[in-house]
């Protein structure tokens, strides 16, 4: 076993955070909170786990900290991107931030958009990965392929050096025939998108393979500004950084290179929602008639389906997504369209978190806006004065202390 390992985890990177802050699939925690708690549970007598480092955009800084507070989890730091640059720069920021005073912690890098049904198996696999990473290897995690899945990337594993495998190659999402062949041949695993490695090793690898990403990210880090736990890289330097995923920038280049890369099998369930007799998986207020093989997630209202097949419907207060199951992986096209059209839905939710609590824009017209506001206990909003609008406040629950000029009133 490892004599001692300090793990900065979870290192939750930007690409997966926007939806996972609010998406509840199992239990009372959302996906982001589940991810943070899974990594905290890795701690034992030989592994010390620090508070998580989160990489996200500026608009989600209070939401991230509030979600951790609600789960009684500490926040290590929030690294705020001024523009989304994918996961290679995000992980580089995390690596630079976690190396302090000569420390070289192990980074546990996980997506915040997954749910794990068998947490003990997850912990066991992660402990193997951490042990291997402490020896100087890059370790990825792979889920044994159970069916010819075309929606996942694959890892081809070489001979076992139990409990880990040498990685022969990373394979892109295959077509149906190729996926069936992978299953028949064996030795292929679904790519879980999780990596474990020393911070210094990541910085060495990104510097070797993609110095055009490493150097501007390093300069942006040097010229950073800090506000409490929020760290803002220099905007001018950050806009120079190329948008590349950690997978394309580094991971797929490691096999047959000077960087040793291993895979730890992850024997955990990924099928989250139970299915009915017609293969429908539903969460929330859902009614169906004569419908088959559907996935429905209703957050704020009733969703009803009649006579449809192979549909994915995700309903939230912000937007509704309807997709054929075969094309669900193409949702990135919609994200790109939102970005091109500069739509605020790409980064902002109707419910907005602030240091004092949150507000939800319930209704809005030409000359009015109605908000529902929650102020956390002992928190307060800033003093305000308006010359061209009138505000009406109704306290619906709890007690509020209101300051108006020199008067303080309890409501």
Describe this structure in words.
The chain is 25% helix and 30% strand. The strands form 5 sheets. Strands 6-9-7-8-12 form a 5-stranded mixed barrel. With 411 residues, the chain is of the alpha/beta class. It starts with a strand and ends with a strand. It has helices at residues 17-20, 31-40, 61-70, 87-98, 119-134, 176-185, 199-209, 211-222, 235-238, 246-249, 331-340; strands at residues 5-12, 47-50, 53-57, 77-81, 106-110, 138-144, 154-161, 164-171, 188-198, 225-227, 230-232, 261-265, 281-283, 286-289, 295-298, 303-306, 311-315, 320-324, 351-354, 357-364, 369-375, 401-404, 407-410. The model is unreliable at 1-22 (pLDDT under 50). Helix 4 packs across helix 7, helix 4 packs across helix 8 and helix 7 crosses helix 8.
Task: Provide a short characterization of the protein structure.
By secondary structure, the chain is α/β, with parallel strands linked by helices. It contains 11 helices and 23 strands. The strands form 5 sheets. Strands 6-9-7-8-12 form a 5-stranded mixed β-barrel.
Fraction in beta strands: 25-35%
Distinct helical segment count: 11
**Overall shape:** globular
Based on the coordinates given, report the CATH architecture of the largest domain. Alpha-Beta Complex
How many strand elements?
23
Reading off the top of the CATH hierarchy, the class of the largest domain is best stated as Alpha Beta
What name does the CATH topology of the largest domain carry?
Spore Coat Polysaccharide Biosynthesis Protein SpsA, Chain A
Helix content: 25-40%
Intertermini distance: 59 Å
Number of domains: 3
User: Strands across the major sheet, in which order?
Assistant: 6-9-7-8-12
What Rg is obtained from the alpha carbons, in whole angstroms?
A: 23 Å
Q: Let me know the average pLDDT.
A: 83
Report the uncertain regions: 1-22
Give me the secondary-structure category.
alpha/beta
